[in-house]
Amino acid sequence: MAAAAPTGAASAELVIGWGIFGLLLLAILAFCWIYVRKYQSQRESEVVSTITAIFSLAIALITSALLPVDIFLVSYMKNQNGTFKDWANANVSRQIEDTVLYGYYTLYSVILFCVFFWIPFVYFYYEEKDDDDTSKCTQIKTAFKYTLGFAVICALLLLVGAFVPLNVPNNKNSTEWEKVKFLFEELGSSHGLAALSFSISSLTLIGMLAAITYTAYGMSALPLNLIKGTRSAAYERLENTEDIEEVEQHIQTIKSKSKDGRPLPARDKRALKQFEERLRTLRKRERHLEFIENSCWTKFCGALRPLKIIWGIFFILVALLFIISLFLSNLDKALHSAGIDSGFIIFGANLSNPLNMLLPVLQTVFPLDYILITIIIMYFIFTSMAGIRNIGIWFFWVRLYKIRRGRTRPQALLFLCMILLLIVLHTSYMIYSLAPQYVMYGSQNYLIESNVTYDDHKNSSAFPVPKRCDADAPEDQCTVTRTYLFLHKFWFFSAAYYFGNWAFLGAFLIGLIVSCCKGKKSVIEGVDEDDSDISDDEPSVYSV
């Protein structure tokens, strides 16, 4: 007999769920377009780099949007009393799971293509374009040559992931050919899940390092910058005028030494050159400060200062909520997990944290829990952006690029989107760390037998009662999200994420201390001697 399709309220709930996902996709595309256009340089904007940045950032956000959809679908198949809905038989459940799995296959494959092919190719193409003597054909050849190196890394990751045995052959006396055959059979049975999972987990590991560097700092820098605000443009302009007068006096003093026709000593020539460069920078600052001081946008931002302070206080409270939840979750794993060999998997929640308690409560009112998950993801995105904007893009101790509103070069924009893409991949595990049971099973319950004794302990009976799904639940009673399968395919990645969470907590505390000790930001922060992205005809407002 065919399974009944969902009807009535259940069908309406499903339509609402997919409708929210559709609106979320439109919002993601609009957000990516606005964000990239906001930061790209107006002088050096390129169509290809702009499309690449928008597309890669959108793919990352759409992938993160699959997490609430995945949780919604596994939760939707069961009633609150622990029984499966009439239409959710084994075939339908498998179809739903496969649909989500294929969605992850597609998006993760596109991410691999962006990280290892498209973004490197476009980046090296524009690096070669800076050389005026290079033809387009040479640019393409050189970019393709460097991109091949990334392609080789991608192929190696896929091969290692495909042939790392998650199980071992039962027969210890098997031949080498039988062992190789076993590996191919295992690869075929997993439909390439292990290979893709290993590659994505490797990128997620890099995203974890980026999150420790940028997101942890951004979680403190963003709210404190909103609370402290920026320095007064009029006061900065007065200080700048005094600096100009002082530098001009030094220049006049040095030039007066050669009035009688005598050549300046080498030491004075070097000093004169430095003062003249300093004077050019100060006059550039003067033009920017004058523009900002008279800008209507500056006056509008000044009127919004009370609102910014409120938002700053809210963001710091949210950051503390996340940090406390992450600490309690990690402490629970340290005390009650199955150990490092299992990737610190935990059976049930022994230490409750605020978010893990809040999400099940919100599940009772659809779709509040999914809205909260989406807000958490966007919060990580905004704090990561704030961290990258404040720190810049570095290669060890060498600063490669600055991220400036309206003045970010195409190469820096590609780097920015690459880092955000990797951080977004890591947010799924961050959310799992904050609410492990919820990410694994959503709001699913399963039935267990409960014995009740009556008539003076002479008689007893057993009847089923619902219990929240956890790691101890039977496999046929609770459906695990596809997100969890991707996150925990390899135990050593899970172990690395666990230690990465402790590093994230430490980085947040360090960033909080640094952000508290730093003074107010300059209203034109970034206009200095080594800022090659600044143009005299491109004044811009930098207030937060």
What do these coordinates show?
This protein has one domain (25-168, 186-234, 294-452, 462-517). With 544 residues, the chain is mostly helical. Helices cover 68% and strands 5% of the residues. It starts with 7 loop residues before the first helix and ends in a 27-residue tail after the last helix. It has 16 helices and four strands. The chain has helices spanning 8-39, 47-76, 90-129, 136-163, 176-189, 193-228, 233-256, 266-293, 296-303, 305-336, 354-362, 368-391, 410-434, 436-441, 482-487, 491-517, and strands at residues 393-395, 398-401, 445-454, 459-468. Residues 1-5, 168-174, 176-189 and 527-544 have low confidence and may be disordered. The protein is elongated.
Précis, in short:
Keywords: Cobalamin, Cobalt, Developmental protein, Gastrulation, Lysosome, Membrane, Transmembrane, Transmembrane helix, Transport. The protein is mainly alpha-helical and 544 residues long.
How do the strands and helices of this protein lay out in sequence?
Blueprint (H helix, E strand, L loop, with lengths): L7 H32 L7 H30 L13 H40 L6 H28 L12 H14 L3 H36 L4 H24 L9 H28 L2 H8 L1 H32 L17 H9 L5 H24 L1 E3 L2 E4 L8 H25 L1 H6 L3 E10 L4 E10 L13 H6 L3 H27 L27
Antiparallel strand pairs: 1-2, 3-4
Organism: Ailuropoda melanoleuca (Giant panda)
Pfam families: LMBR1
InterPro entries: LMBD1_LysCbl_Transport (IPR050854), LMBR1-like_membr_prot (IPR006876)
